[in-house]
Amino acid sequence: MTCSKDFGPIRDDYLFFEEHSTEAAEDLLAYMPHVHVRTAGSGPIHMLDFGCGSGRFSRQFLALARLPPERLRLSLVEPEPGYLRQALKQLQPFSAHPAQAWPALPPGLEARFDLALANHVFYYVPRLDEVLARILRALTPTGLFLAAIAGQKNRLIQFATYCFTLINMPYPYHTAEDLEASLDRQGEVYRKQAMHYELAFPDAEENRLKIMRFLMGDYFDEIPRQPMMDLFSSYARAGRIVIKTGHEQFVIQRQAMGAAQKIGHT
User: Fold this and answer.
1) Could you tell me the pTM of the whole model?
2) Contact at 8 Å (CB) between 87 and 101?
């Protein structure tokens, strides 16, 4: 899950979560059967990577997907310029064509993309309904949409929600429940699948605070340290913290659903 509001250089706490979590591996495993269907045929494959960050996850995604470079046309959306430059450097080798890169999704992209990926990025997207509608309109009539986002049952979301109550704030970001409600409002037909992953790391004050800094972002310094530390105590075992939790994946496969269902493509 991408729960840090910081869009600057990749921080140690973000890397710490990635290195000690099976989340990315589980998402990749679940995405691939959908993606491999898209490799049939011989025409171009236009892919949108919405919220690509530094490209670390997308690099793994494309390495496993093995989309033919001569067919792949890659478009990246990322608001932080430093991340976008890193993503271009990491992802351009997967396509024989120059990648497009934008800080925000531009207008005029209706029915453009065969594949749209939004992996753990909807937490902070303003005007969720509007942005999601634009992404879905950008899908071709046979396009595939893949998204992952944690919901209120996710243990780390619960940690963050509790911390926000300590400073008298409601949880300020979107969750899987918000994404599902937005899809429902737009009349989309989708599949939702529960994902399970493990976060495990050596138990140390520094490591507990790395996870909380990752979760709380700009709000970290406002939260009392001891309550944050105490959140991990029930997950301590033999010198390690082990948390089993999960999130949701949302899949829209327009070709599989069929034109008769008229699933909101305009």
Assistant:
1) 0.90
2) yes
Mean pLDDT of the chain: 91
Q: Which of 193, 207, 91 shows the shortest CA–CA distance to 148? A: 193
Q: What is the spatial distance between Cα 78 and Cα 51, in angstroms, rounded to a whole number? A: 5
Tokens of 241: 């913290």
Which residue would you say has higher pLDDT here, 262 or 240?
240
Residue found under tokens 């301590």: 236
User: What is residue 1's predicted lDDT score, i.e. its pLDDT?
Assistant: 52
Nearest to 159 by CA among 238, 240, 229: 229
For 58-125, strand residue ranges (E) read 72-77, 100-102, 113-119
Question: Tokens at residue 68, please?
Answer: 């033919």
Q: How many residues does the chain have?
A: 266
Distance separating alpha carbons of residues 173 and 125, to the nearest angstrom: 8
Q: Which two tokens stand for residue 71?
A: 């067919």
